[in-house]
Structure formats: structure tokens, C-alpha cells
């Protein structure tokens, strides 16, 4: 396991032997990732699923170049990752919007950091605001928006960079069920139109299957890839999500993922660990 | 017409003037002030001696003072120390507080001195200051600074600490440089607290200005107070104090107004995403 056989398209992200340990407060080391090997294809939608604390966020942050790692290497299109770059942008679980800035300024934030001139960045920001359905809210501040609208801003900010890789860390985890479904459908249709490579972390099996081309299952302590499950559901999927969710294949894959996840939880039950 | 349409989604304004009056604090302030003034007048007429003027006498003296060149000269001299001293407190205190908030190690060294500044009865410093700096403008300026800088430093430090670390991470992920993190994230995020520090600092600066003149230097406004006391001119003495209070209130209101204007976002966000 661990390695994978995604061969349809050229791998855009190549992760080899990735290992990452944290030194905790009491000087004990936590092994967050061990020997992670993963190829993500160009324009692939990859979802990552696993129990809490298995290192999903850590994996995403290493790809983003936000935190250093101990072993192995990560390449994007052949180039080793040394830090954050304009080819990758991130969408955060807690939105991470600047509360003092307007929607327009928040969406244009990344462009501004990259030195894009005012006229161009505002034009690009406006078109993305329209794409995520927030036209008319340009001058509002995050505090005046609902959670779902705030995450649309977060998505627009990431997309404004025109990244090759979109890194999403449980982006819809903090919004209510109905809003989440709307956001999933919208993300699908945006992605179907503007293909890019997506690494999408989630806690939800349904979400992993609905969105992903493949689902990476991770196990905890130490965090490693336990299995990669292909999702051969037809695309485009955004047109009729309801029918998709009733299809036999969808139900089967979701059930399979739950079986595997339950096994992982069983393995880590205190009685088992003691025995 | 269009304006009316745009106002649509906002809560409709109450046309009812009485209700708005009840909602404002001014009527209550006027009421308490009237009661206070009446009580003062009655007390001073009934039991007041040479040193307690009546309310009306005080008002008359205040008006008289406002027309005298002597007062404005004193105001000018006193406020020189205030403007310079508080200016230094802001120019030094804001950056100092910000740096202390960001770099924990530095803070360990500085904490002791900040605490000393916070708890020392400032009047005790005055003799030391006179001995080393003399009786000129310099020692008055320094005292105003010492009085007010703690508020500025402590609040700026808190402001920087309160900035959500995930915003810094977000900025880094979009390629922000260290300088951009300071100017685009830390400073705007700390601004509400910095403004609070400035508002509280202004009050302390006025106190410092008067105290140093009263206790040591005997010039300007403090000198006037001592002179009127020596001559038993109670109404003028009270009038001077009223004018100093009015100045302090005015400065604090200006600071509060600036605080509100600059940091309107902080009120909406803390109200909505209370974390
Ligand atoms: N900065 C850190 N310092 C110390 N330990 C950390 C740090 N960040 C993460 N860890 C540890 O590394 C492990 C993996 O954390 P990570 O946040 O990647 O998990 P996750 O899969 O994203 O969990 P969740 O599903 O709850 O978000 C956890 O055991 C966590 O306690
Ligand atoms: Mg996580």
C-alpha cells in the first residue's frame, strides 16, 4: 500500500517518503506523517479522508510549503517545494478572512501579496466574486456575511491566483449541512469548467466520494496512507447530485470507506492497544 | 427613489423622534448633570465656606477665565508638555508594544519594567526627575510620557497578541513577506486595541501634565491652581479645574471618535464570530 498507481495522466504533485514529526510541549515527539508516497495527477480531484489527528492538515501544509518536514521530498511539476508559491493556493477551514477588509480586498489579497497592480487585481477579484455568486457584496466585511458566504470569499481568494493546485483543508466543515451541499455542487461545477488539481481534505465519506476522482484513506499514529480508493463515478457530477447519491456505485464506495474507517477506529480502541 | 430601494434590506429607520431620544444617552447625561449642579448649588449656599464656591459662581468664573489672556497662556504652556509628552508616548509606545507582542522572548525582559511602570505611584518619580533633568519643559514632557506610555504599550501588545495566528499563516500561504505580514495583518489587526490604548493614554497624559505642575514646577495651569488657592479665589480655582476637565473630556471624545471610525469592523466581528 502507500504507493499508488495513478497512471492516466502525468503526476503534477509527487510525494516521496514524506515524514514529519512535531516536538510537543513536553519535548515528546509526535510522528504526524511516516513514509507518505503519493502522486496526484494533473487536473485530478483528490480527496483525503481519515480519522482525526492522522496528519491530514500536516500533509496539506507541507504541500503548501507552510511547514518544514523531516524526510522525503515533495515536487510540483518536477520542482522541489521550498515554500509557498503562486502555483498553489489554499482554502482554510476557518475561512481565515481579514475581518477589517472588504470582500473585494479579501479576494484580491493574494494578488496584492504577489505584486499585481490595483486595476488588474480588482478586475480579477470582481470576476471571481461573480463566479462564486457574491456580486453586490464587494464592499461588505466578513462580519456581515454568513459562514457559507465567507467560505465563498475564501474560495474566490484562492481561485484568483489561478493556481495549478488548490489545497482545501476541510473547507466546508464549519458550515451547516444545507450550505455545505450547495457549496459542494458549486465547487464541482467551477472545477468542471476550470480544471485544476485539487487536494481536498474532509471528514465526510459522502463528500470524499461525491467530489473525488480518488479517495486517499489515511490512518493515524503514525499518519500514513493506508489505501487509495478510486471513484469511477461519471463526470460531470454537478448536474444531478441527487441521482448520483442514489446510484449503487456511490452507496457501495461510501460503505466500503466506512468499513475501512471503522477498522481503523477499532484498532485504536484502548482495550486493543493495551492487549 | 433609488436610495429608498437600496435601504430596503437594512432595518427600517424609526421616524419616531421620541424613541430615538430615549435611545440616546445625552438626555440621561443632561438629567444627571442637572441634579448634580442643583445639589452642588444647594450645598454650597447652605454649608459652603470660603473654599467652596456655588455652582453659579463657578460657571461665572469659568466664563471669565475663558476670556482672560492669562488662562490661554497657561493652557499653551501646559499643552506643550502634553502634546510633546503624549506624542512621544505614542511614537515610542505603539511600536514597542507591537514588538513585545510579537516576540515573546523580548517580552520576558520587558515585563518587569512594564509592571513597575504600571504599579509605581507616579508622583514618587517626580523628585527623581527634577533632580536629574531640572525644572524645565523637558521634565514635564518626560513625566507626561511616563504617565501615559504604559497604557499605549500594554494595549498595543495585547492587540498584536489577539491577531488570529491563522491569518498570519494565510498571508504566508499567499506569499506575503515578513514586512507585508506586519503592514497587512498585524498592524490592522491590532489597530482597535492600539486606539483603545491611545484613548486611555490621553486621560493619563492630562493627569500627568497637571500633577507635575502642581507638585513641582508650579507653572501654567498647575501654577494657576496654586495661585488661586493661595489667594482664596475659590471660584477661579474651581473654574480652572473645570476647564482642565473639559479639555480631558474633549480629548478623550476625539480619541473615542477616531477609534470608532477606524475600527468599525471590530464591533461587528466580535459580535458575530465570538470564538
Ligand atoms: N504544531 C504542532 N505541534 C505539535 N504537534 C502537532 C502540531 N500540529 C499537529 N500536531 C500533531 O500532529 C498530528 C496530526 O495533526 P493534524 O492536524 O495534521 O491532523 P488532522 O488529520 O488534520 O486532524 P483533524 O482531522 O482533527 O483536523 C496530531 O497528533 C497533532 O496533535
Ligand atoms: Mg486538520
Number of helices of chain B: 13
Overall pLDDT score of chain B: 81
Name every ligand kind in the structure: adenosine-5'-triphosphate, magnesium ion
Number of strands of chain A: 10
Principal-axes geometry of chain A comes out as globular
Largest interface: A-B, 26 and 26 residues
Q: Kindly report how far apart the N and C termini of chain B lie.
A: 41 Å
Structure commentary:
The complex is a heterodimer of chains A (275) and B (275). Chain A has helices at residues 56-64, 103-107, 109-113, 118-131, 147-159, 177-193, 205-211, 241-246, 248-267, 270-274; strands at 11-23, 29-41, 45-49, 71-76, 79-80, 88-91, 165-169, 197-202, 214-219, 224-230. The relative contact order of chain A is 0.17. In chain A, strand 1 and strand 2 (29-41) form a beta hairpin. In chain A, the strands form two sheets. Chain A has a six-stranded mixed β-sheet, with helices on both faces. In chain A, strands 2-1-4-5 form a four-stranded antiparallel β-sheet, covered by helices on one side. In chain A, helix 4 crosses helix 5 and helix 7 crosses helix 9 (248-267). Chain A has 275 residues and is α/β, with parallel strands linked by helices. With 275 residues, chain B is mainly alpha-helical. Chain B has one domain (66-274): Orthogonal Bundle (MetI-like fold). Chain B is built from 13 helices and no strands. In chain B, helix 5 (69-102) runs antiparallel to helix 6, helix 5 runs parallel beside helix 8 (137-162) and helix 5 (69-102) runs antiparallel to helix 10 (178-217). Residues 1-12 and 269-275 of chain B have low confidence and may be disordered. Chains A and B meet through strand 6 and helix 3 of A and helix 9, helix 10 and helix 13 of B. The structure holds adenosine-5'-triphosphate and magnesium ion. Residues 22, 24, 30, 32, 50, 52-58, 223 of chain A line the site of adenosine-5'-triphosphate.
Amino acid at each position: 500500500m502507500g504507493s499508488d498507481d495513478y497512471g492516466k495522466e502525468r503526476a503534477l504533485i509527487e510525494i516521496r517518503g514524506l515524514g514529519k514529526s512535531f516536538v510537543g510541549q513536553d519535548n515528546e515527539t509526535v510522528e504526524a506523517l511516516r513514509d507518505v508516497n503519493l502522486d496526484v495527477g494533473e487536473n485530478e480531484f483528490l480527496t483525503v479522508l481519515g480519522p482525526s489527528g492522522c496528519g491530514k492538515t500536516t500533509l496539506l501544509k507541507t504541500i503548501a510549503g507552510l511547514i518544514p518536514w523531516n524526510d522525503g521530498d515533495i515536487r510540483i511539476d518536477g520542482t522541489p517545494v521550498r515554500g509557498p508559491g503562486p502555483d498553489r493556493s489554499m482554502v482554510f477551514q476557518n475561512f481565515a478572512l481579514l475581518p477589517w477588509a472588504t470582500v473585494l480586498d479579501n479576494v484580491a489579497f493574494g494578488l496584492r501579496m504577489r505584486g499585481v497592480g490595483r486595476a488588474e487585481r480588482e478586475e480579477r477579484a470582481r470576476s471571481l466574486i461573480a463566479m462564486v455568486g457574491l456580486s453586490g457584496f464587494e464592499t461588505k466585511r466578513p462580519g456581515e456575511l454568513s459562514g457559507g458566504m465567507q467560505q465563498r470569499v475564501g474560495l474566490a481568494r484562492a481561485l484568483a491566483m489561478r493556481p495549478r493546485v488548490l489545497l482545501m483543508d476541510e473547507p466546508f466543515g464549519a458550515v451547516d449541512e444545507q450550505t455545505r451541499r450547495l457549496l459542494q455542487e458549486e465547487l464541482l461545477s467551477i472545477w468542471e469548467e476550470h480544471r485544476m488539481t485539487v487536494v481536498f481534505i474532509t471528514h465526510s465519506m459522502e463528500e470524499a466520494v461525491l467530489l473525488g476522482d480518488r479517495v486517499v484513506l489515511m490512518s493515524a499514529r503514525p499518519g500514513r496512507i493506508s489505501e487509495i480508493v478510486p471513484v469511477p463515478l461519471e463526470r460531470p457530477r454537478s448536474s444531478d447530485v441527487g441521482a448520483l447519491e442514489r446510484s449503487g456505485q456511490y452507496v457501495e464506495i461510501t460503505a466500503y470507506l466506512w468499513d475501512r474507517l471503522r477498522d481503523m477506529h477499532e484498532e485504536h480502541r484502548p482495550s486493543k492497544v493495551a492487549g | 427613489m433609488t436610495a429608498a430601494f437600496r435601504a430596503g434590506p437594512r432595518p427600517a429607520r424609526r421616524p419616531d423622534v421620541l424613541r430615538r431620544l430615549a435611545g440616546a444617552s445625552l438626555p440621561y447625561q443632561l438629567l444627571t448633570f442637572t441634579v448634580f449642579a442643583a445639589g452642588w448649588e444647594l450645598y454650597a449656599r447652605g454649608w459652603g465656606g470660603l473654599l467652596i464656591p456655588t455652582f453659579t459662581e463657578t460657571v461665572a468664573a469659568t466664563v471669565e477665565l475663558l476670556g482672560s489672556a492669562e488662562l490661554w497662556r497657561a493652557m499653551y504652556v501646559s499643552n506643550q508638555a502634553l502634546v510633546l509628552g503624549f506624542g512621544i508616548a505614542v511614537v515610542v509606545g505603539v511600536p514597542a508594544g507591537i514588538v513585545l507582542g510579537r516576540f515573546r522572548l523580548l517580552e520576558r525582559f520587558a515585563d518587569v519594567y512594564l509592571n513597575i511602570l504600571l504599579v509605581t505611584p507616579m508622583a514618587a518619580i517626580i523628585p527623581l526627575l527634577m533632580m536629574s533633568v531640572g525644572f524645565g519643559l523637558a521634565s514635564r514632557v518626560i513625566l507626561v510620557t511616563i504617565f501615559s506610555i504604559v497604557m499605549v504599550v500594554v494595549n498595543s501588545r495585547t492587540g498584536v497578541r489577539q491577531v488570529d495566528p491563522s491569518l498570519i499563516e494565510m498571508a504566508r500561504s499567499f506569499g506575503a513577506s515578513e514586512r507585508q505580514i506586519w503592514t497587512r495583518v498585524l498592524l490592522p489587526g491590532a489597530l482597535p486595541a492600539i486606539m483603545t490604548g491611545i484613548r486611555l493614554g490621553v486621560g493619563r497624559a492630562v493627569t500627568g501634565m497637571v500633577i507635575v505642575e502642581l507638585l513641582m514646577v508650579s507653572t501654567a495651569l498647575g501654577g494657576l491652581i496654586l495661585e488661586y488657592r493661595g489667594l482664596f479665589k475659590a471660584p477661579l480655582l474651581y473654574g480652572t479645574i473645570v476647564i482642565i476637565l473639559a479639555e480631558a473630556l474633549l480629548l478623550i471624545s476625539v480619541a473615542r471618535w477616531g477609534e470608532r471610525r477606524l475600527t468599525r469592523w471590530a464591533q461587528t466581528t466580535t459580535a458575530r464570530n465570538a470564538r
